[in-house]
Amino acid sequence: xxxxxxxxxxxxxxxxxxxxxxxxxxxxxxxxxxxxxxxxxxxxxxxxxxxxxxxxxxxxxxxxxxxxxxxxxxxxxxxxxxxxxxxxxxxxxxxxxxxxxxxxxxxxxxxxxxxxxxxxxxxxxxxxxxxxxxxxxxxxxxxxxxxxxxxxxxxxxxxxxxxxxxxxxxxxxx
Length: 174
Fold this sequence. Notes:
174 residues
């Protein structure tokens, strides 16, 4: 039982950190970018407040409640699959995807008058790419880590032990 709980600690802790950073940056954006204020950062990067009531790239506008239900299902499925994790890359990927999905789900649930009808706060704007946020970054990096982990695991010899991280140092002979 202790091993199962420790298997959840790292990805759930990472997910909680992602939600915290995501919500803090969105809170900043809501305050600093109010009244259509735009902050130019460098090159084409600017902070520009936008609300996404759809899914990725503002597709499926108006399907917020359905998207929220699907996101909740994905989070629950990922949390349940934490028991069968394989390696640190999978742990990081799971934590990032869960945290990013939860961060955007918080917006959908609480950023409007009606339950699950809120818009996701986006503010990172390159002007040549759809506007996004920290949760979106976490979801994409986490998904890439999970895909990379799956590719690496598929190339592994079935007889090899499952990787769990750096090899421990051998104890000196006495």
